[in-house]
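Retro notes, item 3 of 5
We never archived the inputs for the magnesium ion complex last cycle. Fixing that now. Sequence and ligand:
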Amino acid sequence: MALLEVAGLHAGYGALQVLHEVDLTVDDGDITVILGANGAGKTTLLRALSGMLPARGSVTYDGTELLGRRRNPARMGIAHVPQGRGTFGTLTVEENLRVAGYHRPAREVESSIRRWQEFFPRLGERADQPAAGLSGGEQQMLAIARALMSAPRLLLLDEPSLGLAPKTTRGLFEGLKRINDETGLTMLLVEQNARLTLAIADHAIVISAGRTGEKRPAAQMWQDETIQRAYLGD
Amino acid sequence: MTLFLQQIVDGLSSGALYAATALSLVLVYRASGFLNFAQAEMATFGTFVVWQLWIWGVPLWAAVSLSLVLSFFGGALMERTLIRPLTRSASHLTLIIVTLGVMLILLNGAGWIFDFGVKEFPSVLGGPVVELGPAVISRQSLVVICTVFLLAAALWVLFQHTRIGLVMRAAVDNPESADLMGLPTGTVLTISWGLAAAIGTLMGVLVAPQVFLAPGMLLPTLIYSFTAAILGGLDSPQGAIVGGFIVGISENLAGSYLPGIGADFKQAVALAIIMAVLLFKSEGLFGTKGVIRV
Ligand SMILES: Nc1ncnc2c1ncn2[C@@H]1O[C@H](COP(=O)(O)OP(=O)(O)OP(=O)(O)O)[C@@H](O)[C@H]1O
Ligand SMILES: [Mg+2]
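Structure as it came back at the time:
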């Protein structure tokens, strides 16, 4: 069953139209990856889904139309890890997690903090340090853990591999896969790094110049020659 | 030596007022990103409300409490109805001009309602001066200084140990992320304006017995409070407190010891401090780098 269904989505910045006709579905419990080059419109798509940009078309989440509603998608169970992470640098690591649980009961928040600190041990070790002092990989873990603190049903991830060493990225993606296996959390991941993402994804979609292609099983995408040439190197 | 000590004590007294006003300015600056020129007049207006209630026979403590609540809602209302709708479209310069407009409306409004004559205002704590070694300080000034420290402590608890305080810090740190996470960023803005207004009224009430209540009574001190806020870094509550006391003490010392400054020319000290901060350390003593743009 589709948790998220996007049809005929158009969005942009003022007069600049970036997304033309985006159609996609994300199945409940799946990891879906959207592959696209720089400037293809990946970030714009996620921003439109979280209501940060005006958009036309239709975005149905769990049976409800999101476009044109005033309700913040974050309050409906959609957590967005933005490109560049967006952590609160002047807050400590633990405060970053705690504030993300704002809408949940206090007891759940404390146990959730412990849970994600165990899952990402670095975040436990650095609990009392300002988030600004974390390394790039740790910042990304914090951004993901912070998103998970809101107990979402759908996790939107914008290029989590950006600026990370391949080894760090691999560890991070294995973590995402493990969360997906253990909790069944649905994820929509936009990436340029096809090699690592296709390895953990169930389905993949290509976006180029603001238009989406057909959704295909990740394993099949992996075999595709044009994909190999465009995203996997030679 | 006695004169020197006395100047320090006097500097602490006036510094406490600057510190508290700077605290209000900083709360608004953190929330909305500009300096509220109406801050002093809002405080004076709140003090007039206390005076009116007191004249009508309401006990002072009740009049103060009521006016603090009204001030909180007044500040909150100003944010909701005037500032926020403009923030979407207008520049900070426009907003500063709007606060100047509010200042003039409150100044003349207070004059029109309560007339421009100087009014006597009851002290919270009267009685003989307290001797601190060779220097002396009035009981009311001691109350003012203690109140500022209590305010600073209360704000520290609010920011560091409450849920809403945590959201306030997050919203200042990265408003876009805070919005994206569905945190109540709007509520937090409103609370900041309300708190700033209430703190203003509290200080107005405490200094009114000394400066005498009249429209514009705090305007002469506003430049010092601005200086204190800028010196402290504009976005730092503890910076505002430290800045307030530094400005108060240096203003008093310069007035007595620097030839040619004297009582009439003391405001130049504030301007000199602002220039020095902007030139040599634009983030102030406690501020975040890149925050100052006034
Ligand atoms: N804030 C903005 N204002 C105007 N145009 C923008 C803005 N952000 C992005 N664009 C434009 O929209 C297009 C798509 O940008 P977008 O950020 O969605 O790409 P992307 O696929 O996320 O790229 P990258 O992999 O580099 O992050 C680009 O041409 C870009 O110049
Ligand atoms: Mg992007």
